Amino acid sequence: MADPTSRGLRADKKARTRAEILANAIALFRAEGIRAARFNQIAEASGVSPATLFNYFPNKGALAEAWVRGEIERALSGVNGQAGHPALRPALRAACRELARQAGDDRAVRLEAWREAGRARPGTLGERHPTVRAFSREQGRERVRADVSAEALAELLIDAVESGLISGLRSELPEGDLARAIQGRVDLVLDGARKRNERVAAPAANSPSRSTTNRTR
């Protein structure tokens, strides 16, 4: 039987190697651009063989995705600590401000990273994901609608963060406006996630609007 301590040490070493490779790749992306950066350069800077690098990241798209989506994951990681508390929305807004701050002055290469990563995330979030746990706890406290799964709500939220960030980067928004652009989309998801009896019912398709009714009187 394998020693659990040995397994833990190997896992720690793999995590450190992965983090070092990613840090070196990001530095090279920033210096040369993603398309110009070569796999062999990243491997050399990280002190590993190209084959070892391939085992961690099969291509530059995987590296780019680990960079930009990793930042979102870290920004949202503290949200679960606010779950079940009225400050959930401010906690998410703080995460949006942090993402806008991180965008800094390397926006062009971040957009390149998003193009390399693509919009489709691999796999599902899973019930242990901080944002899924946050929505699960809000549902348990009857603050969020329960007719949609916590995982679906979390996916909608992360999609909103990603799309707001990408749109703001394309528009070259300054930091404050970029944060508000992301926050606006997050607020739309949160407003839609409110309990059914707290939401404003949409007008029936065949019923006249209030303004139309008033004009016809």
**Total beta-strand segments:** 0
Rg measurement, Å: 21 Å
Largest beta sheet, briefly? none
- The number of domains: 2
Write up what this structure looks like.
The chain has 2 domains: 7-58, Arc Repressor Mutant, subunit A (Orthogonal Bundle), CATH 1.10.10; 60-197. It is 67% helix and 0% strand. It has 10 helices and no strands. Helix 4 (60-76) runs antiparallel to helix 5, helix 7 crosses helix 8 (150-170) and helix 8 runs antiparallel to helix 9 (175-192). It is globular and about 55 Å long. 29% of the residues are buried.
How is the topology of this model organized?
Elements: H1 4-32, H2 39-46, H3 50-56, H4 60-76, H5 88-103, H6 107-117, H7 130-140, H8 150-170, H9 175-192, H10 210-216
Concise account of the structure shown:
The protein is mainly α. Helices cover 67% and strands 0% of the residues.
